[in-house]
Each structure stands twice: as structure tokens, then as C-alpha cells.
Amino acid sequence: MDTNDLLKRQLDETAWREITDEFPWTLETLRKYGKKLDWEFVSSNPEILWTPEMLEEFEHWINWTRLSQTDCDTILTVDCLERFADYWDWDKLSENESIPLDYDTIDRFIDKWNWAALIDHSHWRGADLGASHLYSYEFLERYASRIPANALEESQLWFTIKEQRKKELHRQIACGEA
User: Fold this and answer.
1) What is the pLDDT of residue 28?
2) Backbone angle region of 15, left / alpha / beta, with phi > 0 → left and psi within -120 to 50 → alpha
3) Which pLDDT value is given to residue 31?
4) Block means of pLDDT (10 residues each) for the chain, length 178 residues?
5) Which of 87, 85, 143, 83 shows the shortest CA–CA distance to 115?
6) Phi-psi region of 176 (alpha: psi -120 to 50; beta: other; left: phi over 0)
7) Which residues of 47-80 are buried (b: 16+ CB within 10 A; e: fewer)?
8) b or e along 120-146 (b: 16 or more beta carbons within 10 Å of the residue's beta carbon)?
């Protein structure tokens, strides 16, 4: 192979690697070009609208650790979490703030979550701390046996319930109820 062929090949490989990370791949284009792509980058490509069918077809090519960090709501469903439970990286899913969590979802996969990560979601901490749909004293009581004690005091869960309690005490003091 001469120098020109080598440069052309290297240029082609670099271009394919970069387009892998940017192109809005579909089921059809992945079928057609999948063998040319770097699946580590495909798996973290934010332009892809993933479907359960795509996960099924490419389950052995997908980098599930990368995909577990996606914000693609079409696959962050209970059905997809359950269907591909053995493939997902549950540590990364536990950190993923795009998963619409509720008690039912948490309970369904209760033994798979990384609890230190799950209690540290910053998006549950908002300006209106009372509106936090999950982070509450009820959450702490419900999952106390699962929550690692060494992670609790530095977590968003602790911060949120502490702030909720401060608000409650402030109200009680102001009303002479404390």
C-alpha cells in the first residue's frame, strides 16, 4: 500500500468515526452502514432516536454502558428497562436523570439500582423543594434499608429533606407551634 492509499484510508476512517457520533442514524442506515461504524460512538450519539426494535437488532453491537447514559425517552421506559435488563449498565442508569422515576419503577428494579447514585439526582432539587416528587422523608423511610449510610449525608436526597424540614420548622416557629 503506498502513502496516498494509506492517507486516504486514514482520512476515511477518521471521517467515519466523526460522522458516527453526529449523524441521526435510523434502523435502516444502521443496517446498511453498521459494520463501518464505531459502536461506542453510535451508542452515545444524541442524534439517534432509539427504538426498542433498534435495541433488539443491535443488542450485541451496542455499548450498553454508553447507551445507559442517554436521554432518549423512547427507550428509557419501564418496558425497555425490563426487556433489556441484562444489558443495561445499572450503575449508569442509576445516575441517569432522564429516567422518569416513580416508586413503581424503583420498586420494579429495586435490586438493580446503585442506591448511592439514585439518591444523588440533582434535578430533583429545585427552587420549590416541596414539589420534589420523590425526594422526601417518605422516600427515605421507604428505602432506608437500601440507602448506604455513608452516602446519605452528602446526597441530594438528604439536602432536599433537610431543606423541607427547615421550611417546616420555620413555619412552626413563625406560627408559635414549635
Assistant:
1) 98
2) alpha
3) 98
4) 88 91 96 95 97 98 98 97 98 95 96 97 57 79 97 94 94 90
5) 143
6) left
7) ebebeeebbeebeeebebbbbbebebeebbeeeb
8) bbeebeeeebeebebbbeebbeebeee
